[in-house]
Amino acid sequence: MESFFVPTLIVALAEIGDKTQLLALLLAARYRRPWPIIWGIVVATLANHAAAGAVGSWVSSLFSPVVLSWILAASFAAVALWTLVPDKLDDDDARLGRPYGPFVATTIAFFIAEMGDKTQVATVMLAAQYPEFVLVILGTTVGMLLANVPVVLVSHFAADRLPLTLIRRVAAGGFAALAVYAGYQAVTMSTIVSG
After folding, report:
1. Are 187 and 180 contacting, i.e. CB atoms less than 8 angstroms apart?
2. Where in the cell is it found (predicted)?
């Protein structure tokens, strides 16, 4: 179950203050219909993270476990630093939802906004680390929902009350811990292979 719970926690923390969370806030304020927005988030996240997870699984088949552990360690360290930088919603992302209803607008906007986002990169890395592909994708999707559904349901009230800097630091610490763990695995495997 680690393949489910670790991705859930990592993505939920990384998503706080992310541009997709700001997008959820804008869509909730614009449409004032939470359930189509929530379902749009589910569909977009499953599609986006399934593709990212497939890339992660493919990458894991290209490298030896030692090399993959070093790549994961470096990637997790980079995402830990990236998590400390607050996201801002671009005007282009905000305009994505205008011409459609809430479900279609949310699905399209979230799918596009997640491209190259730190949670998508984290999904690639987590899918490379954990062999249970479906559990990783479900975990990252649940993490996305844990961060975004409260924003949709309580709109600006919840977003104004969350200690975003503290949450970003906790998420960065989580990624840093994963980087250390992946580095430890690489050193351990290198020792076994060479010894």
Report:
1. no
2. Membrane
Other C-beta atoms closer than 10 Å to the C-beta of 169 total 15
Range of the domain at 44: 1-194
Q: What is the count of structural domains for the chain?
A: 1
Q: Mapping DSSP to helix (H, G, I), strand (E, B) and coil, where does residue 87 land?
A: coil
Distances (CA, A) of 140 to 6, 50, 57, 164: 9, 10, 15, 20
Q: What is the pTM of this model?
A: 0.69
Residue type, 102: P
Residues 150 and 33 sit within 8 Å (Cβ to Cβ): no
Check residues 124 and 59 and name the one with the higher pLDDT.
124
Longest dimension (CA), the chain: 62
Q: How do residues 67-98 score in pLDDT, each as one tens digit?
A: 877 877 887 787 677 767 765 555 554 454 45
Which DSSP helix (H) or strand (E) runs through 98? none
